[in-house]
Structure formats: C-alpha cells, structure tokens
C-alpha cells in the first residue's frame, strides 16, 4: 500500500497525505476535513434550498408548475383559447385565425 498518496487539485497544487500506521477511519476523517464541506456549510446550503420554495416561484419542483395556476394570472393557452387581441396573427397581420 502507498503510505504517502499525492492528491492533485484542479488548480494544479499537490497535497501529500501521510497515512502511515493510520486506520481507515482516521484517514477518512482527515480527507473529509481537508476536501469536503464543513457541517455548517452543508446546513447553510440546506437552509438556502428551503428558502427557494418561495410561493412566487413556479416551475418544476415548485408549488405551481405554470404561471397560469396562480390566481389572477392569464390562463394558459393550452387550456383556454386566447382572445383575438392576444394572438399574433390578429395583432400584426390583422387577420382572423379562424379564416385559415
């Protein structure tokens, strides 16, 4: 077994770990302490994820998947045909969609 493994980081710096006569738990805790996030950081990230569940947000993994589900918003065009004034053909070409 290698007693001094070398860890190369993305920035190019090298770190030599002395693991001679250490058990796997102490090696794991040393590597976790050096390279992993601390418990405080993990708790702060979990709190930030919880704050993202704002009722004003919509989309996947939110309270509403579409803005049309929020009361007072314009209904989605997949469920309700929009008025002529909101259609591009009528607004820009001054042409009724049903004529096509």
TrEMBL record:
Entries under InterPro entries matching the protein: Ribosomal_mS25/mL61
UniProt keyword list: Mitochondrion, Ribonucleoprotein, Ribosomal protein
Subcellular location field: Mitochondrion
Keyword Isomerase: no
UniProt GO MF annotations: structural constituent of ribosome
Keyword Ribonucleoprotein part of the UniProt annotation: yes
Main location: mitochondrion
Gene Ontology cellular component annotations, sorted alphabetically: mitochondrion; ribonucleoprotein complex; ribosome
Lineage top rank: taxon: Eukaryota
PANTHER family in the record: MITOCHONDRIAL RIBOSOMAL PROTEIN S25 (PTHR13274), SMALL RIBOSOMAL SUBUNIT PROTEIN MS25 (PTHR13274:SF2)
Protein name, entry field: 28S ribosomal protein S25, mitochondrial
